[in-house]
Specification:
58 residues; mainly alpha; 79% helix; elongated
Amino acid sequence: MTDKIMAIVALATMIAFLGVVAWFVPDLDLILVIGLVSLLAIYDFWHTLRNGGKSGSS
């Protein structure tokens, strides 16, 4: 359970940091890359939680 809480805190911290970068450097290309990276991180987090931390395609 602690690993899930730490993962949520780490994901939230990363997104908050990238949000600050996007706020102070309002370039459209950078914002698109930050959005894509955030979505990929959220998807990976969700996929890992759903599979119980197992690696592989199933």
